Amino acid sequence: SPKVIVTMSHQLIIFAIALPGYWLATYTMDSLGRKRIQMMGFMMMALLYGILAGLLSTMHNGNVSEGMKALLLIIYGLTFFFSNFGPNSTTFILPSESFPMHVRASMNGFSAACGKSGAAIGSAFFKPLSVSIGVPAVMGICAGVSLLGLLITILFIEDRRGMEMKGDNNNPGSEGHSHTQALLGSNRTDNNF
């Protein structure tokens, strides 16, 4: 049916916008760092969801121009791009780098379970919330959740570029520091972003 073809074409457009986010994250993961990539992803998602909330709240009737439909589709696709170039990529890497070796596998699994639980909850509530409070409000909530992710990233994620994974070296007292830092006597652990 024509509606299925339109839906499929929209999904292909969103996929074509979203997939390069993973590629860009992979290419820049070491140069930009996981923390910075995650921050940029959450920041752009918050901005784009906020724009969607604003645009959708101004549309009171079903008469939306084709140009506006295309713009909304592109903006929505960009939320997936920055999700992929951001938390979708970094959340697979950060747990393996962040936990000491003796709990790394367990905590990596726990982190993955938490992420999947959050995704399941968000997916389960999206449709009922859209019906009860409207899509613009749900986009606003998505913007708020993205801002919360940005704040948590700023406050709690350490930029570990150039450092060994915690517990991977045999030097007592130097857990989590690179050989270069150990040689230079640097104990700096502040978050540079």
Provide an overview of this structure.
This protein has 193 residues and is an all-alpha fold. Helix content is 75%, strand content 0%. The chain is built from seven helices and no strands. It is elongated, with a radius of gyration of 20 Å. It starts with a helix and ends in a 9-residue tail after the last helix.
Give a short synopsis of this structure:
This protein is mainly alpha-helical and 193 residues long. It is built from seven helices and no strands.
Largest sheet: none
Shape: elongated
Structural class: mainly alpha
- The end-to-end distance, rounded to whole angstroms, is 50 Å
Q: Helix proportion of residues, in percent?
A: over 70%
Given as residue ranges, the uncertain stretches (5+ residues, pLDDT < 50) are 171-193
Question: Count of helices?
Answer: 7
Supply Rg.
20 Å
- Please give the number of β-strands: 0
Question: What do the pLDDT scores average to?
Answer: 85
Written as H for each helix and E for each strand, in order along the chain, the element string is HHHHHHH
Strand content: under 5%
Element layout with pairings:
Blueprint: H1 2-32, H2 34-57, H3 66-84, H4 87-98, H5 104-133, H6 135-156, H7 179-184
Jot down its keywords.
single chain, about 190 residues, mainly alpha, about 0% strand, elongated, disordered C terminus
